[in-house]
Amino acid sequence: MRFRIVWLVSVLWLALAACTSTAPESSETVRVMASTSIIGDVVQQVAGEHVAVEVLIPRGQDPHGFEPTPQLMAQLQTADVIFINGLGLEAALEKMLDAPEFADRVVALGEDVPVLLPVEADGHEEEDHDEAHADEHAHGPYDPHVWFDPRNVAAWADHIADTLATLDPAHADAYRANAAEYRRQLDALDAWIREQVALVPPERRILITDHAVLGYYANAYGFQQVATVIPGVSTLAEPSAQALSQLYETIRAYNVPAIFVSEMINRRVVERVVQDTGVQMVLIYTGSLSAPDGPAPTYEELMRYDTTVIVDALRGVE
Ligand SMILES: [Zn+2]
């Protein structure tokens, strides 16, 4: 009996010692949220084991059309930091987060990137991006899909590391080291995309997408985004009959073999375009990662998947 008590006491003591020694490691102190699964992945790469990032918009849902529920609003109140893209991408969520109570907790990663493209109706880019950078961010004159240029995501990583380091100084070095390592991976990704795109003859580097989602990709890798099925940089619109006939003309004029569309988009109009023109419909991932067991479970794999199917379709590889 006595032996048993001694054993129990020493087990308890060991357990207690274990608790106090591991407690500072698993700091549950910082509550980090991210709007899209793409941003969530990048934040997690930088946070590493020190933070479990909560993603607000479920995978497979369109960030443009996402409507926050009352439960989500309650969840947001408990966040220490909420990473969003901004520039109008998460339209309804952004409006909610505009409230003064969130002012010092929201980090809009998309609004502070090296490459910022204006929203263009005619498909041509303006020069002087730095000048354009200076003002009017919140008013939507910029294409919000900044993650389609890995240089912008590298800038996100640094911005995320700085933010987490301020909230959780004990792990500041780890966050900065993770961001630096992730930057190296993004450099490799960028080099790989360039190699792949080089396989497509320059005159065939023509992109037609469901909405204007690949502006940054086109700009970075020498494509022309010549037309879209849905007008503009949001998915929350319908093409007019006139816009559709203009689209058909463009498809014929450029002799494009394929249009690139996301699973999240209402397929009705796209299917009509396919029927009317005989163009091939190729699925890409745009505003959300795939399911964890799908082909685009991380940002990096999303970019590799999209690049592979785009290059194959434009080269005419089945
Ligand atoms: Zn979009």
Automatic annotation (TrEMBL):
The keyword Metal-binding applies. Keywords: Metal-binding, Signal, Transport. InterPro entries: AdhesinB, Bact_metal-bind_prot9, Lipoprotein_PsaA-like, ZnuA-like. Residues 1-23 form the signal peptide. It holds the Pfam family ZnuA. GO terms for cellular component: cell envelope. This is Zinc ABC transporter substrate-binding protein. It comes from Ardenticatena maritima.
